């Protein structure tokens, strides 16, 4: 085996030869043999082998194997040096193999070494993203558990840091195709990470892309199977998948398949649900997910049937008032317990789906059932008002830090819940029942309005209508008639047919009245 002096001498031969270094195969072989020496020889070999690697394609396998031996050396400093130089071997057909080696090295428990592996992977990503991904996915599909786990984590944390010129559409399509293979057999935690990876891809942030992801989640949830409420794994898989699907739903990407499954299979078995998660109120968790999805439900085949199931479940949590004795007191003793959190979810879901069949309460229920429902609503509303007064009294005068105590946080949430229920009950008390009110579910953050330019205007201010570039002709004029001295935010008027309000309805309340008309241009 060569000495340090011999390694330097052969290095000199190759360095002096510059572009003709490939003619000195024997000199390069001496450097390759350096990996069999002591610590000093190995450190030199770790630097010299990659430096002249490109000149000896016929020795590529031997060179990569020699460097790999150094990556697995007992001396951590030698390993670090060898890993740092690995990207220099990532040329042409060798790149996927180097990516495969680096992926295996992610199992290192040495933090400095682990960071070097991460940096090396990122550097070859920029050379050939698809080839690097090939190595990563190869280990995810076939490697050891620890390598699989860290490779998935690498993708979930590092992909989003790569520039657009690296993550091209073709590369993203490759990620999706390979991910589908992995998703055929994943744990719950791995599934969550892959959804994080896929939902971050630019090509999947379109409506069609989101739809693809929803279909992927639906496959994972296996919505065609018979639901087993007593199997904790079955329940947990459904919840994990639904949680991943919820952020994907929108007015263009519908939740119909999931809402249908919940109504037909989960709601009837609500009380029988089991979960492996200790301390989780599984029934409330299910109802919260259903409520969030109900806003984005499209046309449902068995709408009336599913609305009936939802209505029946709602009735279970909306008790009839206790019977009164002759002296006017409660004959049964205890007042029924009102479960506000459950009712908020069920009432909201019913309100959302009820919009699609507005005559359900009047035409689909007989008079007795409707009367029974109104009595329950009335009784619940009375209890609600008492609780709302108690909460407001308890929170009165409290601001800032005082509202951040655990006790007061609970009261603030309780007030949101009760206010939501109150709004929804008022809607259903209308004759006929109304489904127009909108509420923000108590556990969801309130969407802050985008700050717009605010201008104080006087009555009968004329605004010139801004035309689209492709429109022709003279612009019309709009007269805005607000309440005097009202601060109004106005929109850009794009077409002559639009009636534009200066403020959002929710923001305006009853204090702003705005009329928009088009004046004749003649």
UniProtKB/TrEMBL annotation:
What would be one Gene Ontology cellular-component term for the protein? Answer: nucleus
Q: Which terms does the UniProt entry file under GO BP? A: apoptotic process; negative regulation of apoptotic process
- UniProt keyword NAD present: no
- Where does this polypeptide localize? Nucleus
Is the keyword Nucleus assigned to this protein? yes
Q: Which Gene3D superfamilies match?
A: Leucine-rich Repeat Variant (1.25.10.10)
- Where does this chain mainly localize? nucleus
Q: Which UniProt keywords apply?
A: Apoptosis, Nucleus, Repeat
**What is any Pfam family matched here?**
API5
InterPro entries the record matches: API5 (IPR008383), ARM-like (IPR011989), ARM-type_fold (IPR016024)
To which protein family does this belong? Belongs to the API5 family.
Q: From the Swiss-Prot or TrEMBL record, give the protein name.
A: Apoptosis inhibitor 5
**What organism does the record attribute this protein to?**
Gallus gallus
Gene that encodes the chain: API5
């Amino acid at each position: 085996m060569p000495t340090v002096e011999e390694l330097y001498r052969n290095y000199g031969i190759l360095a002096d030869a510059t572009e003709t270094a490939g003619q000195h195969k024997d000199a390069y072989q001496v450097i390759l043999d350096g990996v069999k020496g002591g610590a000093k020889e190995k450190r030199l070999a770790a630097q010299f082998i990659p430096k002249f690697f490109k000149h000896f394609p016929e020795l590529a396998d031997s060179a990569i194997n020699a460097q790999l031996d150094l990556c697995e050396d007992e001396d951590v400093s030698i390993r670090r040096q060898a890993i740092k130089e690995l990207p220099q071997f990532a040329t042409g057909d060798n790149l996927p193999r180097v990516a495969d080696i680096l992926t295996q090295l992610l199992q290192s428990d040495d933090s400095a070494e682990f960071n070097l592996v991460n940096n090396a992977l990122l550097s070859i990503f920029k050379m050939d993203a698809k080839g690097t991904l090939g190595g990563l996915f190869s280990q995810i599909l076939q490697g050891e558990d620890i390598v699989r786990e860290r490779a998935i984590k690498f993708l979930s944390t590092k992909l989003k840091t790569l520039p657009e010129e690296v993550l091209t559409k073709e590369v993203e399509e490759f990620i999706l195709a390979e991910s589908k293979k992995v998703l055929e057999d994943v744990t719950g935690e791995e599934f969550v990470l892959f959804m994080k990876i896929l939902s971050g891809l630019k090509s999947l942030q379109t409506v069609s892309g989101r739809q693809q992801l929803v279909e992927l989640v639906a496959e994972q949830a296996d919505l065609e199977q018979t639901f087993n409420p007593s199997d904790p794994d079955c329940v947990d898989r459904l919840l994990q998948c639904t949680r991943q699907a919820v952020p994907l739903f929108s007015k263009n990407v519908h939740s119909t398949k999931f809402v249908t499954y919940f109504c037909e299979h989960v709601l009837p078995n609500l009380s029988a649900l089991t979960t492996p998660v200790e301390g989780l109120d599984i029934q409330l968790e299910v109802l919260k997910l259903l409520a969030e999805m109900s806003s984005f439900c499209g046309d449902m085949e068995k709408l009336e049937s599913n609305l009936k199931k939802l209505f029946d479940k709602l009735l279970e949590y909306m008790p009839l008032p206790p019977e009164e004795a002759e002296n006017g007191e409660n004959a049964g003793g205890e007042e029924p317990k009102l479960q506000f959190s459950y009712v908020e979810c069920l009432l909201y879901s019913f309100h959302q789906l009820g919009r699609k069949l507005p005559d359900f309460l009047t035409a689909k229920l007989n008079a007795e059932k409707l009367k029974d429902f109104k009595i329950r609503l009335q009784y619940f509303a009375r209890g609600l008002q008492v609780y709302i007064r108690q909460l407001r009294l308890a929170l009165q005068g409290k601001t800032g830090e005082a509202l951040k105590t655990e006790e007061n946080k609970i009261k603030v949430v309780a007030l949101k819940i009760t206010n939501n229920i109150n709004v929804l009950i008022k809607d259903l008390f209308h004759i006929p029942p109304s489904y127009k009110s909108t509420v923000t579910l108590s556990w969801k953050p309130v969407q802050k309005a985008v700050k717009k330019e605010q201008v104080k205007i006087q009555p009968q201010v004329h605004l010139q209508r801004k035309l689209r570039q492709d429109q022709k002709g003279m612009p019309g004029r709009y007269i805005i008639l607000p309440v005097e001295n009202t601060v109004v935010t106005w929109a850009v008027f794009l077409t002559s047919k639009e009636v534009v309000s200066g403020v959002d309805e929710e923001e305006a309340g009853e204090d702003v009245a705005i009329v928009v008309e088009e004046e004749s241009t003649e």
